[in-house]
Amino acid sequence: MQDMKLLSLLSERKTAILEKWFDKILETYPADSANFLKTQKNPFANPVGPTIFQGLEGLFEGILKGMDFDTAPAFLDSIIRIRAVQDFTPSQAVSFVFLLKNVIREELGEGIKEHSVYTELSDLESRIDSVALLSFDVYVKCREKIYEFKASEIQKWTFRRLQRADRLCDSSKTEHDDMKFSSIDDTMKKRGN
């Protein structure tokens, strides 16, 4: 019954919690970027803002319902993938998960004491910690893909440069050989052979 109290409190304040959580995440960005991500609602002009918010909605619902951690990466992936390509350290990239704890405590405020949901809140915060650890795994996989892509691009670039250098060498060798033969031909013509 106690768990239902916390779930009920969180469900009642879901919109406010999600908006505050989103705002806290935007605070991790430079001011001009944060303003753009928050105010630009067009998903074509700003795919990052809506993608992050949708990921947060899925994560929040999953955390409340005690999500299966096999499905959590789908919600995390959309957010982490964005943060993995930006200038965040690993800890900064996944720190947004921990921000949810503060947002919940701020939003519930006196309701925690009033409804005596300390134990349930502690359980919920443990689930949030588990999601944070899982988010680090997702981050590492995203970074691995980025490094693999970069390594592949460097290999392709190097291969193209070597091919070009080889063609230049072949071209200059052919020109050099052509010059040798033409000078021999010229010499032979001068001698009258």
In words, what does this structure look like?
The protein has helices spanning about 1-10, 15-25, 30-40, 50-65, 70-85, 90-95, 95-110, 110-115, 120-190. With about 190 residues, the chain is mainly alpha-helical. The protein has one domain (about 1-145). The termini are far apart. The model has no long low-confidence stretch (mean pLDDT about 85).
Question: What is shown here, in short?
Answer:
The protein is mainly alpha-helical and 193 residues long. The chain is built from 9 helices and no strands. Helix 4 packs antiparallel against helix 5 and helix 5 crosses helix 9.
**Percent helix range:** over 70%
What proportion strand?
A: under 5%
> How many H/I helices?
9
Report on the biggest sheet. none
Molecular shape: elongated
The topology string of helices and strands comes to HHHHHHHHH
Q: Compute the gyration radius: what is it?
A: 30 Å
Low-confidence segments, given as residue ranges, are: none
Q: What would the average pLDDT be, to the nearest integer?
A: 85
Number of DSSP-assigned strands: 0
Count of folded domains:
1
What structural category do the secondary elements indicate? mainly alpha
Query: How many angstroms separate the termini?
Result: 112 Å
Task: Name some characteristics of this structure.
193 residues; mainly alpha; 83% helix
Walk me through the topology.
Blueprint: H1 2-12, H2 14-26, H3 31-39, H4 48-64, H5 72-84, H6 90-94, H7 96-108, H8 110-114, H9 118-191
Helix pairs in contact: 2-4, 2-7, 4-5, 5-9, 7-9
